[in-house]
Write a structure and sequence with these properties.
Layout (H helix, E strand, L loop, with lengths): L1 H44 L3 E4 L9 E8 L7 E7 L8 E4 L5 E16 L2 E14 L9 E9 L7 E3 L1 E6 L4 E4 L15 E3 L11 H72 L1
């Protein structure tokens, strides 16, 4: 009897120990899973990227922002180098000034000259370098570097920019891996996705046509206003001339009336004298 009681009383304790062990194991696995998700999400999203302001249409011009997040807890970003593609050279590259940063634009000779708007381009920008000059990107911060780009390629769906991010502890992160479908890159290069060219627009000529049309419309409006003003002035001058003529006629008639009246008075005086004589 005593043996059976001891056996039955010890069984629940072993089950409780087993349950506690399973619970701890589940907790550890869940924590590891959450940590891996955070690490993967950091790799996927906390990288140098390029984003257009509006659309980046094929064959057109666009303003883009190179977004640079700081990934280190004890270091600040002090330099960014963006390499422009050589397979699709961009003839027009204009960086916008960023307070606290200096910018240097490097040009290179083209193996094959470009023709843009009838002009032959023999060199193009190959690299843009921003260097901290009083500013920096601290832990938990990001900075955007705007650039106007064009003419974007007409026969490509995207433009890849390879970038180098330098920290003040001399660490350099190379965001140069070209993303491939079905394969996640550890250090992906910034990619600018291009949209279809708008109908009637080709390399920005649509905007030029619209601007020219607006200028023509404005010129026509100005000419019409000038013609209207001229007509109004002529009418006013005609009215003034008519008024002057009327005033002149009235003055002549008044003088004639005075003369006639004076003559009548003189005639009356003479007639009276004759009667008295």
């Amino acid at each position: 009897m005593s043996l059976s009681r001891r056996t039955s009383s010890s069984a629940p304790a072993s089950r409780r120990t087993s349950s506690v062990g399973v619970s701890r194991a589940v907790t550890v696995l869940a924590g590891a899973g959450a940590l891996s998700v955070l690490l993967l999400s950091g790799t996927a999203f906390a990288h140098v990227s390029v984003q257009p302001q509006g659309e980046a249409a094929k064959g057109g011009y666009a303003t883009v922002n190179f977004k640079v997040p700081n990934e280190r807890d004890t270091a600040s970003t002090v330099k960014l180098e963006v390499n422009l593609p050589t397979e699709h050279p961009l003839a027009s590259v204009l960086p916008q000034p960023v307070p606290g940063w200096t910018v240097q634009v490097t040009k290179s000779k083209l193996a094959k000259p470009l023709e843009v708007h009838g002009n032959k381009i023999t060199e193009a920008v190959s690299k843009i370098t921003w260097t901290a000059a009083g500013g920096k990107i601290g832990p938990g911060q990001f900075q955007q570097f705007p650039v106007s780009l064009g003419q974007l390629p007409e026969n490509a769906d995207q433009v890849v920019f390879k970038a180098l991010q330098t920290y003040d502890n001399k660490e350099v992160v190379r965001w140069i891996e070209v993303p491939q479908e079905g394969k996640e890159a550890a250090l992906p290069a910034p990619v600018l996705e291009l949209t279809a060219a708008a109908e009637g627009h080709h390399g920005g000529t649509g905007d030029a046509k619209n601007e020219k049309a607006e200028q023509t419309e404005q010129t026509d409006k100005t000419a019409k206003d000038a013609h209207h003003d001229k007509g109004s002035t002529a009418g006013s001058e005609s009215k003034a001339a008519s008024g002057d003529d009327s005033d002149g006629t009235a003055r002549v008639l008044a003088v004639v009336g005075i003369v006639v009246g004076a003559a009548g008075v003189a005639f009356g005086v003479l007639a009276g004298r004759r009667r008295v004589a």
